Amino acid sequence: MADLPNIDFKRIEIPKMPNLQRGSLAAIIAGLVVVMAGFSTLYQVQPEEVGVVLRFGRFVRTTEPGLRAKIPFAEEVRKVPVQRQLKQEFGFRTVEAGIQTQYAETTRDLAGEAVMLTGDLNVAVVEWIVQYRVDDPYLYLFKVRNLEETFRAMNEAVMREVVGDRTVTEVVTVGRQDIEAQVGLRLQEMANQYEMGIAIDQVVLQDVNPPDPVKPSWDEVSQAQQQRDRMINEAQAEFNRVIPRARGEAQQAILQAEGYALDRTNRAEGDSARFTAIYTEYRLAPEVTRKRLYLETMQRVIPKVGRKLYVDENTTGVLPLLSLDGTATRPTADSATGGN
Amino acid sequence: MNRATTIQLIILLGIVFLMGQATYTVSETEQVIITQFGEPVGDPVTSPGLHFKVPFVQKINVFDNRFLEWDGNPNQVPTRDRRFILVDTYARWRITDPLLFFQRLRDERGAQSRLDDILDGETRNAVAQHNLIELVRSTNRNAEDVQIESEEEEVILEALELGRQAIQTEILETAAGRTSDLGIELLDLRLKRINYVTEVQQDVFARMIAERQRVAEEFRSEGQGEAARIDGERELELAIIQSEAYRIAEELRGKADATATAVYAEAYNRDPDFYAFTKSMETYEQTMDGETLFILGTDSEFMRFFDGDR
User: Taking the domains of chain A in order of start, what are their residue ranges?
Assistant: First the structure.
């Protein structure tokens, strides 16, 4: 480069450039080293986390949230979200939580998680979630490989164990809370045994159903239950409709009978009083009173009668000539003559 | 200058390389065996941190220190009561003697395949020796605590010989006996899933449906029965009310009739003949109307005078 004399500009530049380059390169490298050292020294722990510091792979300390420092290159940090509530879902998956949460379509695998045998050897489909927290970051990080998978397997085993002790009816209807509590307890026991460093917050059963092909018959049962109630209610209603009315009608019949009784005795007394009164007078002049009563009656009766026939006792031959309409001629004649 | 720095650099790199060869780190999750030309040297290194070894000659073999997973394949196994089920198990295990482990199994892949043999085999044996109910239930239930809706559910009350947990422990113990000389400790074994094979499942569903239908029928019949009882009660009540009312009413009427009869008898008995006379008169008056044909003989009391002298 020095044997290019015709360019002044270059000649000046040549000795200077390497100097400049060397200086700035060193500065850049130094800067980079500082930045890298800074980056590998300082780290931030988020409010919900703790930092677990390892020196050459050995656990040395945990650090609280904030800006923290460590020895560069020798130490590394693992952050564990101890305050965050973690969740596992079984039998279904939330795709996107929100006001209207989206769920993944139920696949064979998902269904497999939820199908289990009950204690009466029937089948139930139980979906549930478990909420848990990291309790001991050291155990959580270093004691169990594939902790999440392990935890899921535990869940499936424990849920089936608990459900396996109950009838399908209990599982689907009344046993929910009991199952949740039991599963929670046993999961915690096992998590301790496995040294997982997690605390179970709660187990919550979601949809618990009989298997799909069996569902209609379960609906039929609740339908039948309602039918039973309806039939009983209807019968009771009929009872209530009829009986109080019958009571009232019975009262009415009794009151009517009382009325009849009163009527009957009063009339009897009235009639007898009248008879007694007449009789008292009659005894004073029996012959004449009797005739008078007879004739007075005739006087009232005969004008009302439609047809009258006066027959001499010697001319009885006229009777066969009469065209009678066949109604009670003789009795009338009899009764007429019976007045004697 | 340039050459000097190059040499310096090379020396530095050499030192770094040597350091790299002479040291190694063991993390919290690891344990290490040092081998020298393939032959294990010294005790396994289990304490985490920075360690030294002879560079180039010694090699480190890393093993996991944590609880490891084993997940069985769903096996189709018949139970003692000849029900075909799919059994899925999982186990937790740990390398407790890395040297032994290294010698017997070399790596985890070897271990997993050996565990497959042992655990699947033991699970099959255990399942085949027990009834299904023993594999499903763990504890005996008190008859008072269980609501039984149908006969089928009564299996829940059968007494267990062992139960699920005991069988799990049994499998674990026999398997643990077979893994102890492999440098492995079995921590736990669980029956994860037990399901009916598809054909059996259809039968079970059919049975469940039949069972539900029976329960439904029972409810309906219960409803009908109860309704019939209430109907009967209603009819009885109605009969009681109506007949009692009838009795009381008739008693009242009867008494009244009796009283009336006594009153009449007392009055009319003074002169029965006169009573007959007056009553007849009254009756004539009431019974004769425009339709009546009245034939009067001249010999009657009424017409007596019409006939002239008599």
Answer: 8-80, 86-210, 287-318+325-337
Per-residue 3-state assignment (H helix, E strand, C coil) for chain B: CHHHHHHHHHHHHHHHHHHHHHEEEECCCEEEEEEECCEEEEEEECCCEEEECCCCCEEEEEEECCEEEEECCCEEEECCCCCEEEEEEEEEEEECCHHHHHHHHCCHHHHHHHHHHHHHHHHHHHHHHCCHHHHHCCCCCCCCCCCCCCHHHHHHHCCCCCCHHHHHHHHHHHHHHHHHHHCEEEEEEEEEEEEECHHHHHHHHHHHHHHHHHHHHHHHHHHHHHHHHHHHHHHHHHHHHHHHHHHHHHHHHHHHHHHHHHHHHHHHCCCHHHHHHHHHHHHHHHHCCCCCEEEEECCCCCCHHHHCCC
Interface test with A, best of B296, B299, B307 (most A CBs within 10 A): B296
Q: Does B48 score more than 80 pLDDT?
A: yes
pLDDT of the residue at B310: 44
- Report the percentage of chain A scoring pLDDT > 90: 46
Closest residue, chain A, to B205 (C-alpha): A214
Judge whether residue B74 has pLDDT over 70.
Answer: yes
Q: Which one of B28, B141, B291 has the shortest CB-CB distance to A142?
A: B28
CATH of A86-210, one of 1.20.140.10, 3.30.479.30, 3.50.50.100, 3.90.550.10: 3.30.479.30
What's the pLDDT score for residue A232?
A: 94
Q: A111-115, A177-181, B119-123, B147-151: which has the minimum mean pLDDT?
A: B147-151
Chain A contact set for B64 (CB, 8 A): 145
Question: Residue B28: which of A58, A115, A168 has the nearest Cβ?
Answer: A58
pLDDT recorded at residue A2: 44
